[in-house]
From TrEMBL, chain A:
<dbReference type="InterPro" id="IPR036059">
    <property type="entry name" value="TldD/PmbA_sf"/>
</dbReference>
<dbReference type="InterPro" id="IPR045569">
    <property type="entry name" value="Metalloprtase-TldD/E_C"/>
</dbReference>
<dbReference type="GO" id="GO:0006508">
    <property type="term" value="P:proteolysis"/>
</dbReference>
<keyword id="KW-0645">Protease</keyword>
<dbReference type="Pfam" id="PF19289">
    <property type="entry name" value="PmbA_TldD_3rd"/>
</dbReference>
<feature type="domain" description="Metalloprotease TldD/E C-terminal">
    <location>
        <begin position="227"/>
        <end position="460"/>
    </location>
</feature>
<keyword id="KW-0378">Hydrolase</keyword>
<protein>
    <submittedName>
        <fullName>Zn-dependent protease</fullName>
    </submittedName>
</protein>
<dbReference type="InterPro" id="IPR035068">
    <property type="entry name" value="TldD/PmbA_N"/>
</dbReference>
TrEMBL record, chain B:
<feature type="domain" description="Metalloprotease TldD/E central">
    <location>
        <begin position="127"/>
        <end position="236"/>
    </location>
</feature>
<dbReference type="Pfam" id="PF19290">
    <property type="entry name" value="PmbA_TldD_2nd"/>
</dbReference>
<dbReference type="Pfam" id="PF19289">
    <property type="entry name" value="PmbA_TldD_3rd"/>
</dbReference>
<keyword id="KW-0645">Protease</keyword>
<dbReference type="Pfam" id="PF01523">
    <property type="entry name" value="PmbA_TldD_1st"/>
</dbReference>
<dbReference type="InterPro" id="IPR045570">
    <property type="entry name" value="Metalloprtase-TldD/E_cen_dom"/>
</dbReference>
<dbReference type="InterPro" id="IPR035068">
    <property type="entry name" value="TldD/PmbA_N"/>
</dbReference>
<dbReference type="InterPro" id="IPR051463">
    <property type="entry name" value="Peptidase_U62_metallo"/>
</dbReference>
<feature type="domain" description="Metalloprotease TldD/E N-terminal">
    <location>
        <begin position="32"/>
        <end position="96"/>
    </location>
</feature>
Amino acid sequence: MTAVQLTPQDTVERGLALAAAEGADDCVVLVAETSSTNLRWANNTLTTNGAMRGSSVTVIATVGSGEGTAAGVIGRSSVTEDTLREIVSAAIATARAAGPAEDARPLVDGTASADWALEPEETTVGVYEKFAPSLGESLKRAAAEKRRLYGFANHEVVTLYVGSSTGLRLRQALPRGYVSSTGKNDAHSAWVGTATRDFTDVDALSLDTELTRRLGWAGRTVSVDAGRHPTILPPAAVADLMTYLYWQLDGRDAFEGQTVFSKSGGGTRIGDTLSSQPVNLHSDPALAGLEAFAFAVARSSGGSSSVFDNGLTLTATDWIRGGKLEHLMTSRYTADLIDVPTATPGIENYVLSVDGATGTTDDLVAGLDNGLLLTCLWYIRVVEPQTLLLTGLTRDGVYLVENGEVTGAVNNFRFNESPVDLLARFTAAGATVPSFSREWGDYFSRTATPPLLIPDYNMSSVSQAS
Amino acid sequence: MPDIDAAFLALPRQELAAAALHRARDLGATFAEFRLERIRSESISLRDSVLESAKDDEDLGLAVRVIHDGTWGFAAGVALTVDEAVVLAEQAVNMAQVSRPINAETIELADEPVYDDVTWISSYEIDPFSVPRAEKVALLTDYSDRVLKADGVAHVSVHVATIHECKYYANSAGTSYTQQRVRIGPTITAHGVAEDRFDSMSSTAPPAGRGWEYMTGTGWNWDDELAQIPGWLAEKLAAPSVEAGTYDVVVDPSNLWLTIHESIGHATELDRALGYEANYAGTSFATLDQLGTLKYGSPVMHVTGDRTAENGLSTVGFDDEGVAGQQWDLVKDGILVGYQVDRRMAKKNEDVLGTPRSNGCAYADSSGHIPIQRMANVSLQPAADGPSTEELISRVRNGIYIVGDKSWSIDMQRYNFQFTGQRFYKITDGKLDGQLRDVAYQATTTDFWGSMEAVGGPQTYVLGGALNCGKAEPSQSGAVSHGCPSALFRGVRILNTTQEAGR
């Protein structure tokens, strides 16, 4: 093979030069270098593991001017000097064959990151230097105690480079890791999960200790019928539900009457009070510990994103403030369409908080006379977009709370609930803490949520799963 | 019959494979396999007949998996060089060595025949990537216009995904193959707004292992469906809300495929039954000790696993462990009789399974991922001389006919499920009696399949499916088809979703 692999910076510079030479009016080149390593275990033994490197290059060429501009988008996983020319040519040809894009806007003006010249960051199996031995110990301990452990640890670093013909030279490297672990004994199961940036703060033995504590709660088993029950949702379960709400904040879909944030008769519900409680849903790429990409990245255009917005600076945004819907996600195009003053693209983190709320899940348990404590939720899907009614199930730990204490394990349930309604109905909340959604955490892990007490959570039927 | 893409054949497949496999052997691997994969994908979206997004991607990379000292090791990369292939082999062996202390189980694989440099291509006519983008957009704009111009349609969204997958596989036992597959997944959705609510109506054309010919009428009647969508939407917006209760239901294949996928397809994956998915998607109630005895459903229930069905999304010549495609029984006369397995599971459980062979269910969604046990096309077989859908409906006095898929969810052991659909028709005295809205059905898997009184004949059989079934950690996306006839179920719980929302 004589193909020459390019550095990300070379890919950007040569791609932009080729685009200019071949007649593109403007161009954006996105390069994402990904490095990841993982461990997976089941039945107290390692099952699979891997180390992967990935690279993706996206060329967005534009032709025309103003609102008559068309875009062509071509992506490839591996680019050499030779193939880059083909990609750029294909992107330009695609743009020329396309009609004007309705979301066309001038490309974002250029700024340059101070670390633009740095190489991509990498992770290796060495990230588990402390974690792997403690995992090995926990697997042995579980086997000796006739418990079974199942789980997954993943660490990745994504280094993103964005360059444009308008001068953008942005680079950002983001590490992300998480552990999800399930413990089982003969009759019950329990789950713990946590997000991390580098695994220095994750100890498998500590996670196993918490699993053991939860399995211990199952010393007594109680059958509870379906129905509406007072239910404590810990931060992980709140994240399970609120991530779905977050993904429904698309401004165009709402404007066109397709989501829970659509106003009856037309338009959006921006300005409507969703909750009488002082609830806030906030995103900020600079949130300590939950850092996200600080600029917009769009490989395709959609309701709240636009390929013309690549590199747009993302700023702290209140989606819900004081219970009132403040913003929906928009590109510059959809901001104009729905008549809001500024574009608010999506940000890959959020914090849900309740003003003045303090305390932990355990504190909520201490204040509950009779009800349920969940661990996490699973297989959550939209049943009705109009109310954002979701269905899903409890799993790996539902507990009975009596007189302020966990007194036993309860069967699993299917629920039908809307997270928007839950924000209007909860009666107590705790302090917001970093959380890890059981269902969505592998994809969207930068969340912080409080525990909530719902007075009448709708358990639609009993699930036999255990 | 199309040819294997010449550009893929021009890649140094054998050279890279030889370098990786030799290096793995030199480092002491007892088994090694190499994959070179190129996956081209195109996604075109229109909104109200205007092109919103069109994106063309290509994922090209190589992977090495080894068994070293009885432990798996895996590594993947993107540079198509001998040096990279060698480095990946070294990384894979290193990964196995690092993992060895926490591996309590020696990996052994079922023996399989060796296939030397064979070729397989899926059944399609027109490579979607050979059709000019403008031609594709023009067709989709026409389809969109037809729906959008109808009264009562506020918005229309169109999305078409196409995938062209080329793979070269070689292992240290001597098997090597080159394989090419094409698949396509179109959805057209009309949105409507009534005075106090909104709703949508989507096409029921399933994704298929076909080429662009699918969009122009081969395998699906678009003219007919597009003409009817606006009327279906208008009727749904005006329909009365269902009264929750217990009903007899006739389920159309456009809905039943998804119930099969969730409650049979995933439940008969042996890796789940053995606990390998316990931390993620969950296990299965259909445990190995119940093979041959578990009453899964009524005696009319016959379900097969199939890697050979024409136009199936999970149809292959060979899986990602070099095993040839096969067909076998999973449920026969209502009894659990088989599982979906890979080579490791086949070897470990051959005494219980009654066979030492894998049935070819190992698959990775790209070169960047490890092959895992993956679903074959799992299909409910029709009755040879079975009734038509109309005849099934005629057997119902007070019930519901369910068409098209929408919302789906099932628990972590595949017991409790809830599904909605696109259209729900009230059945009164054996005849359709207009649409209902706010309908969901909820059941326990064995109760539901046990209540299946009759399956339709071959004339009702449709191959449904999905492009994006998620499984494993790290998560992988798989495509799979499910064929089924219409079927009649007695006494199914029907929910009113508005009431479930507390309104």
